DNA sequence: CACTGAGTAAACAAGT
DNA sequence: GACTTGTTTACTCAGT
């Protein structure tokens, strides 16, 4: 221990961390595995979803049970060529595309990009899409006693992520740096009966465990994560997704349990979803948030069941949940990086949810300026998805109106030991909210938002760039007229 | 432009 | 003395 270590380092109150956990993972992309999914399969998504949710809920995937469920989940990942788009970390350099990857098809640039990103042979050369905090967290969580010495943390990382075997040794320094810096990790008094040599055992601070779980969950890891389908010409800025879901990439146990259907999205979905995201209309295509929380899966299933029971011909009857003021309060892993967030209290859908362009209009009625948008959707789960979309837009509006910088809306890693700040510093959103309006409880709302988001993701967000841009103004006018009538 | 998160490098001290 | 562990600082970069 350094002589200059401030005594407050380990003794800092974790209060701030409980309220404003941070986004930890830079945007990452990963390879595409489900390349051959058919449209017909996508059509069955909703049905499969229902079963998936049932399974998830029945199994009550609490906490990181999904992580423990199968270590080959991580192995699959580490060998699957999932790649980072972080210019700093991606061994490919600043361009997210691997030089070894094949060029995207001219006819299908987005999918081609997705395909090329998936390099099964490059796993050991790809940095895992987890921050060191997440890696450490997973390592410790994977330990029987939930505590590990640094050496074993190294070993776990090396075991599961061969990338580090050949990586510069600095990553160990980074691990130690994270352990020391991150309040989520705390040293455990070494049991003298244990001869682990020098050093301490590291464990997860229970008070921050949730933060780490959230950070881990939000890591976009599966082939349809936002970063994946980024067209080569799109800017490198990838809005961060905040998933409250276990990894549903191809190695995910949950994925396998459901025959892989969860990730099987038609090609068009990928393409257009990315297109939408590149337009900052759909900042994210969220992985299916099969949440560890049973209530959340219930909410998802409920919303889906609602839709299924109504049929596709009446999506407009779907009653979206009341919008929330801010999603960032409850789960601090906000999607603050998402450029557009919406909160809708009403979703107006066309009589036919699947018109030629699969476009629906979303109208936002909230305390913020309505911003009707035409949301291209791929499938019939349009209303729930539209709800999510609108919520995203509202978020964006709120964010733009308040606390500046993006990730986590200015909250600054409250779990970071020597960066802990006061509440006023870590919760700018709360401050804004307090200054704005009192808001209703949003726990249930959160569930529904995530449900909507997952439905959106699973349905596959199909966006037509031109349609969006060209129809926005028109849609606004039409919706205003409709309201008047 | 300022701020933040994350990664990295480096220095240093202490323990083994 | 070499190595490991732990802490801290400083810096860069991406994103907003």
TrEMBL record:
MF (Gene Ontology): cis-regulatory region sequence-specific DNA binding; DNA-binding transcription factor activity
Entry GO CC: nucleus
Region of interest (Disordered), ranges: 1-41, 79-114, 305-358, 392-416, 431-451
Official protein name in the record: Forkhead box protein N3
Function: Acts as a transcriptional repressor. May be involved in DNA damage-inducible cell cycle arrests (checkpoints).
Domain annotation Fork-head: ranges: 127-214
Subcellular location: Nucleus
Biased segments, Low complexity type: 7-41, 98-109, 399-413
Keywords from the UniProt entry: Cell cycle, DNA-binding, Nucleus, Repressor, Transcription, Transcription regulation
PROSITE patterns per record: FORK_HEAD_1, FORK_HEAD_2, FORK_HEAD_3
Biased composition (Polar residues): 333-349
Signal sequence bounds: none
UniProt-listed InterPro entries: FH_FOXN3, Fork_head_dom, FOXN2/3-like, TF_fork_head_CS_1, TF_fork_head_CS_2, WH-like_DNA-bd_sf, WH_DNA-bd_sf
Pfam families, per the entry: Forkhead
DNA-binding region: 127-214
């Amino acid at each position: 221990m350094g002589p200059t270590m401030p005594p407050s380092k380990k003794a800092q109150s974790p209060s701030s961390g409980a309220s404003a956990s941070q986004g930890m993972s830079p945007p990452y992309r990963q390879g595409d595995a489900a390349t051959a999914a058919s449209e017909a399969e996508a059509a069955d998504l909703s049905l499969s979803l229902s079963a998936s949710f049932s399974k998830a809920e029945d199994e009550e995937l609490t906490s990181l049970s999904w992580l423990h469920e199968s270590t080959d989940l991580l192995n699959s990942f580490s060998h699957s060529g999932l790649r980072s788009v972080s210019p700093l970390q991606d061994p490919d350099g600043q361009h997210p595309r691997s030089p070894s990857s094949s060029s995207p098809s001219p006819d299908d640039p987005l999918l081609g990009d997705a395909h090329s990103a998936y390099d099964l042979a490059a796993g050991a050369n790809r940095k895992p899409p987890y921050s060191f905090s997440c890696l450490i967290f997973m390592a410790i969580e994977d330990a029987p006693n939930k505590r590990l010495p640094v050496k074993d943390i190294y070993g776990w990382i090396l075991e599961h992520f061969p990338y580090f075997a050949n990586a510069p040794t600095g990553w160990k320094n980074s691990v130690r740096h994270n352990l020391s810096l991150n309040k989520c990790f705390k040293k455990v008094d070494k049991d003298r009966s244990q001869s682990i040599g020098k050093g301490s055992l590291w464990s997860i601070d229970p008070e921050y465990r949730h933060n780490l779980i959230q950070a881990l969950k939000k890591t976009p890891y599966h082939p349809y994560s936002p970063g994946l389908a980024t067209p080569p010409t799109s800017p490198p800025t990838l809005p961060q997704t905040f998933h409250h879901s276990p990894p549903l990439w191809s190695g995910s146990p949950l994925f396998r349990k459901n025959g892989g259907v969860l990730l099987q999205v038609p090609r068009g979905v990928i393409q257009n979803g990315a297109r939408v995201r590149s337009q900052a209309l759909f900042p994210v295509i969220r992985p299916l948030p099969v949440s560890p929380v049973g209530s959340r899966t219930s909410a998802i299933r409920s919303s889906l069941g609602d839709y299924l029971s109504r049929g596709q011909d009446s999506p407009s009857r779907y009653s979206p949940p009341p919008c929330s003021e801010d999603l960032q309060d409850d789960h601090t892993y906000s999607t603050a990086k998402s450029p557009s967030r919406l909160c809708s209290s009403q979703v107006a859908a066309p009589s036919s949810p699947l018109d030629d362009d699969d476009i629906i209009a979303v109208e936002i009625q909230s305390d913020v300026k309505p911003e009707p948008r035409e949301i291209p959707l791929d499938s019939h789960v349009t209303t729930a998805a539209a709800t999510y979309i609108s919520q995203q837009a509202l978020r964006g509006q709120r964010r733009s109106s308040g606390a500046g910088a993006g990730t986590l809306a200015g909250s600054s890693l409250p779990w970071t030991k020597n960066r802990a700040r006061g509440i006023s510093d870590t919760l700018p959103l709360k401050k804004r909210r307090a200054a704005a309006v009192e808001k209703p409880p949003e726990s249930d709302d959160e569930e529904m938002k995530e449900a909507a988001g997952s439905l959106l993701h699973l349905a596959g967000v199909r966006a037509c760039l031109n349609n969006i841009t060209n129809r926005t103004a028109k849609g606004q006018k039409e919706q205003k007229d409709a309201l008047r009538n």
